[in-house]
Write a structure and sequence with these properties.
With about 400 residues, the protein is α+β, with helices and mostly antiparallel strands. Helix content is about 25%, strand content about 40%.
Length: about 400
């Protein structure tokens, strides 16, 4: 049966060889069809420049969109130390990729440039797919800017070893750290999006009494690491070093969105359905938490933990929501953007996740990657929102008139 979406997996020591292997395996399945868009997920162990060289040697001017990940996955399971390349074809599908290398240095300027470029596009965007550096830069700034456009938006932040301080994105025929890559989809492209998580409130909450940008310095006027030590065990100093600093992501903070910030008033009753989850990339030696995105000073935050069974059930929910959003459009390819915390939480049953996703998707090809954040637009009258701890399912489809 002819497919309009295929994928290939490349495994090896050299990034160029792995990328070429994955790309050729995908190209072999599409015959003479012309690729419209290539999605690329690159394990963090590879040199991104070598990977790009392998991709462009076979794909030429095909629009490329992708990012680095802790680990890629497919319907067959997790794909450690691999490059996964998915290719979409179709005569009525349109795609172009925009590349912004200075995202980390000046996120507000990139947001302005991006919006201006979208307003001057040669075709009307149906969907926008964003990948951004997962450690540096402010994707919240871009989200706010996108709020003025009447277009669906989804995506993620790239992942990699936090101690290295870099993650990588691929866009057009370029790749590097500190960047933002945006695939603008038009024609008959449609994108169904579902997002869900299985993280539970532990019933312990605090006031974020001092924050600075993406650092939570104190909770209830004590160093944040001391709070973790008090409720989770070990000393505050131990939380600043491996393995505990890496495990901190398993215990994220749920922000009460209805909290009045800036004061020292009483805590309010939490609405568990209205918590915006923020993850710690690491615990600093000064006891602060280095988060994936800012936490407002004065906000009430809840300590949370993951439930493996609830997360697997949430994966099915995300697929169902994505498929329901498509209406009568024909599904082509599913992409799972999974928070890095799920890899830790499901370590003993990792391939269960691929099995659950595949079962819910049926015959739709599946690829995906572990990320540091998931980008979803809840409604066209609201800006996109950056989430942590979620699994986001994107189903690329071809619409019908």
């Amino acid at each position: 049966m002819k497919r309009n979406a295929v994928y290939g997996v490349g495994i090896g020591i050299n990034g160029r060889d792995a990328a070429m292997q994955a790309t050729q395996r995908a190209l072999d399945q599409i015959g003479t069809a012309r690729p419209v868009l290539a999605l690329v997920f690159v394990s963090q162990e590879f040199n991104i420049t070598e990977v790009l060289a392998g991709l462009t040697s076979l794909l030429g001017e095909t629009p490329l969109w992708g990012f680095s990940t802790l680990r890629a996955l497919t319907a067959e399971g997790d794909q450690p130390r691999s490059v996964v390349v998915a290719i979409i074809t179709g005569t009525d599908l349109k795609a172009q990729v925009q590349w912004y290398p200075n995202f980390a240095q000046d996120s507000p300027a990139v947001a302005r440039q991006f919006i201006q470029a979208l307003k001057q596009d040669i075709f009307l965007p149906q969907e926008i797919l964003i990948a951004a550096d997962g450690i540096n830069g402010s994707l919240v700034t871009v989200c706010n800017a996108l709020g003025e456009l009447n277009v669906h938006v989804a995506g993620c932040t790239a992942a990699g070893e936090p101690s290295l301080g870099k993650t990588y994105c691929i866009g057009k025929n370029q790749a590097g750290p500190g960047a933002l890559s945006a695939a603008v989809l038009g024609g008959r492209f449609r994108l169904g999006v579902g997002c869900a998580h299985g993280w539970q409130d532990l019933g312990v909450y605090f006031r974020a009494t001092r924050t600075r940008d993406v650092w939570v310095q104190t909770l209830d006027n004590a160093p944040a690491a001391e709070t973790y030590a008090r409720y989770l065990g070990y000393s505050a100093r131990e939380w600043a070093f491996p393995p505990l600093t890496d495990m901190a992501r398993l215990y994220p903070l749920g922000i009460e969105l209805n909290t009045q910030t800036g004061g020292a008033g009483p805590f309010v009753e939490a609405d568990p359905t209205n918590l915006l989850i923020r993850s710690a990339l690491r615990v600093e030696v000064d006891g602060s938490l280095r988060m994936s995105a800012p936490v407002p000073e004065g906000s009430v935050v809840h300590l949370m933990t993951g439930d493996p069974d609830a997360c697997l059930a949430a994966a099915t929910t995300a697929v169902q929501d994505a498929l329901a959003a498509l209406g009568k459009a024909t599904p082509l390819l599913a992409v799972a953007l999974i928070d890095a915390s799920w890899q830790l939480l499901l370590e003993a049953r990792q391939n269960h996740l691929s099995t659950v996703l595949k079962s819910a998707l049926g015959e739709i090809p599946l690829v995906g990657a572990y990320t540091f954040g998931q980008l979803v637009r809840p409604a066209l009258d609201k800006p996109p929102v950056l989430h942590n701890q979620n699994l986001e399912v994107l189903v690329f489809a071809e619409g019908h008139e």
